[in-house]
Amino acid sequence: MKKLLLNGLLIGAMLGSAALTGCSNDDPMPDNPGNADRWVTVSGALMGSTPGDGNGGTMVYAVSKDDARNPEVSIDVFENGYGVRSNRTARLQASEDGSTLFNIAYTGDNGGEFTKYAVNGGRNFNPIDGGVNISQYAGTSPRWVKLFDGDRTGIAVNVTLPVPNNAPPAGGTFAYYRGVATVLALDFQETLISGYRQYEIPLTAEEELQGHTIFRLDAPVLNKLGNKLIIGTWMRKYDVASNTVANNFERLGTKSVVVDYPSLENPTIITSSVGHGDCSGYRSFNSFVASDGNIYQATQRDPKGSHILRINQNNEYDNSYIFSLDAALGVKGVYVDAWRYVNDNIAYVLYTHGGTDQGYVAQVDLSARTATKVEGIPYDADLDFSQYQGFMVDGDEVYIAVTPTGKNGNIYILNSKTNEVIKGATLINKPGNHYIGVF
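Below the sequence we write its predicted structure tokens.
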């Protein structure tokens, strides 16, 4: 039965590839024209065992855009919201018009289960079109994002724990540590797996002999032409002599995996000599096609602070483009928790610096390579964006949830053209909880 299912999925992958051929993205990601009449969904993460860990599940609640912009309106997602399927923090995405919420449950008995919800206001989220479980192919904790292709496709990625080839004390001649990577496409319209591929992704022989390997894949993005996916990586190094994880090591340049789209075949690796951190992000998008047609990507765990890197339209890193957020913001040790492109090469970054967990918001100009901390937002010491997921882009504005752990906060609306900061609806919190997105 399993063999028949696999064969059917492989056939489906080929059919899905054929059906998607021609669904190119000939223009850069279009500017969002704004939607006067749409639902705004806020999400909150419940505490598990430690305040702010988000391991107790995820709640959602939807209001009108007028209510989202009104500071006199109070939203209590933890008291009045709807619990989406996930043992821990759900990884949520939303349709461009806010009418549909997409979720893949994270870990547990239902880990890997994909569900679509119709957004009907308040706590009324109705599962639609059944669902599909991708755990057999991408595990119970897949990382995934929605492509900017008109709400047609989601891409889930995973890589198994790297295993050694003849590492001591097994004997023999050591060659590498590698896991098996999965890249899987979800058809949002038909609610099915439209294709998947599995393969090992080797580094250079020299890098692998030193114990370097890909530990995690995340945050895929579709290029301007719609023929390549660029997938972020989180790198790891093993001590080959002891077969243990190396905690401190000299990092390689930032690496991304490039695969053909829609076939998901032919994985290759590109390397930046500007960034030396990972580019996997955490719970949100980490790479965007901007108005100029290039892809911009943030780094994490970079020894010289987070950078914004540029991948050109030949799907290669542009090492002439140097954008250090440490230098632009005038601080040390910037770490990008999450960020979101708006339009006209303007984006907003949620970040920390100086080795603390306190979050800040900055506007970045990708063309000018400048970054400015957004004033008008209360920067509480307990404001932590490390699990942040959802930004709602509406025309020139982006909506974000700003709540310190266990404390009330607000939705803030930031205008990328005028730099106006609007204080929106009040977000009622509970001890140990925090809000993690606006969709």
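Residues 318 and 421 are 33 Å apart (CA to CA).
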